[in-house]
């Protein structure tokens, strides 16, 4: 299945505002991350970044489906 | 309670009057402002960008937590995104409560949580022409 991954700030500077990656059915957040980090310039993203699934922070073993909105969250700077 | 991510200047006084009332003996207003020096670099301005839909949700969650913990509904928070100049307000938190201790505590809780949790990013522009993404201390 193809997962669209949203990117922001410095991660978007390196990879664009989103990338599409293919993962097997039953994949988890960490599998999606591994595919993104395997892209050219993907190493700009750290090993264990914050990730959100459907706009809620998610653990790296959370399963993902093709309809999920997955986002990699750079270190935040609100306030 | 009311929360919003906005792309216009924040009017702190209007947030204050939104929460103040005769049942509340204390109203605390926190205003976060764009500062001219950060870690030794002279700042000329900055851009905030957000994961908008998630930032709205997360800000509402943080304020709902504060409302429940300190038993008030009189909290209003706005966070601005876009390009800001020095001295402009990036975030305003208005908390009203019957008692001052709770009002201060709830206000402090909200600013500390949003600095850790809100998916908002800041790119500082410096007087020397450089620009950098900066992160909050964890």
Explained architecture:
The complex is a heterodimer of chains A (79) and B (138). Helices cover 20% and strands 27% of the residues of chain A. Chain A is an alpha+beta fold and 79 residues long. Chain A is globular. With 138 residues, chain B is α+β, with helices and mostly antiparallel strands. Helix content of chain B is 33%, strand content 40%. Chain B has helices spanning 12-19, 52-70, 100-117; strands at residues 2-6, 26-33, 37-38, 41-50, 75-80, 82-85, 89-97, 120-126, 131-134. In chain B, strands 3, 4, 6, 8 and 9 form a five-stranded antiparallel β-sheet that branches. A four-stranded mixed β-sheet of chain B has the order 1-5-7-2, with helices on both faces. In chain B, strand 8 and strand 9 (131-134) form a beta hairpin. The chains are: A alpha+beta (79), B alpha+beta (138). At the A-B interface, helix 1 of A face strand 4, helix 2, helix 3 and strand 8 of B.
